[in-house]
């Protein structure tokens, strides 16, 4: 375990304060409850540029991309960050189905590259400490998504 400095702890607390900002909290809640696409085309149809949904999406993914970049550069001890954060993994899991399509469409292999690399290391760190937990979490979130879809279908 690395030595965590007061400066790193202060930066972690600043990032946490940003997460508590009202509009970002709203965007994060929407993202976790509502964001669900499997193709770039579906994303473009559901979340039009300038829409509240598109703005919320961009707020959430850019926040976590920024956090991942900070950790990837060593500005916050990685293990310290992993011990206190997990939402970034959920965000990445939700965008993974369309990530390659975005990268191809924009001819930019670096889209969310910081978050991707960070989450790979987070998974390895988690699996070393709790083998099987990543797959268990994926299954749980798939079941939750199916339940939401069934509920939405029943109310339609």
Keywords:
single chain; 156 residues; mainly alpha; globular
Can you summarize this structure?
The chain has helices spanning 6-19, 22-34, 40-46, 52-72, 78-84, 87-105, 113-129, 133-155. By secondary structure, it is an all-alpha fold.
Explain how this protein is built.
The protein is mainly α. It has one domain (6-155). It is 78% helix and 0% strand. The chain is built from eight helices and no strands. The chain has helices at 6-19, 22-34, 40-46, 52-72, 78-84, 87-105, 113-129, 133-155. The mean pLDDT is 94.
The major pleated sheet works out as: none
Low-confidence parts: none
Strand content: under 5%
Number of separate helices:
8
Give the end-to-end Cα distance, rounded to a whole number of Å: 51 Å
Derived from helix and strand composition plus strand pairing, the structural class reads: mainly alpha
Any idea what the shape is?
globular
As a whole number of angstroms, the C-alpha radius of gyration is 16 Å
- Helical fraction equals over 70%
Using DSSP, what is the number of strands? Answer: 0
What is the total domain count? 1
Mean pLDDT: 94
Order of helices and strands: HHHHHHHH
Mind sketching the topology for me?
Layout: H1 6-19, H2 22-34, H3 40-46, H4 52-72, H5 78-84, H6 87-105, H7 113-129, H8 133-155
């Amino acid at each position: 375990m690395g030595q965590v400095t007061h400066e790193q702890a202060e930066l972690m607390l600043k990032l946490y304060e940003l997460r508590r900002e009202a509009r970002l909290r709203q965007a994060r809640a929407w993202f976790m409850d509502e964001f669900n696409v499997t193709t770039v085309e579906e994303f473009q149809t559901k979340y039009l540029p300038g829409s509240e949904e598109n703005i919320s999406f961009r707020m959430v993914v850019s926040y976590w991309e920024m956090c991942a970049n900070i950790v990837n550069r060593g500005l916050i001890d990685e293990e310290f960050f992993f011990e206190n954060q997990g939402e970034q993994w959920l965000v990445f899991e939700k965008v993974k189905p369309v990530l390659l399509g975005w990268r191809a469409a924009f001819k930019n292999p670096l889209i969310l590259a910081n978050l991707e690399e960070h989450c790979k290391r987070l998974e390895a760190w988690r699996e070393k400490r709790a083998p099987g937990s990543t797959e268990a979490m994926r299954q749980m979130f798939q079941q939750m998504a199916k339940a939401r879809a069934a509920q939405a279908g029943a109310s339609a």
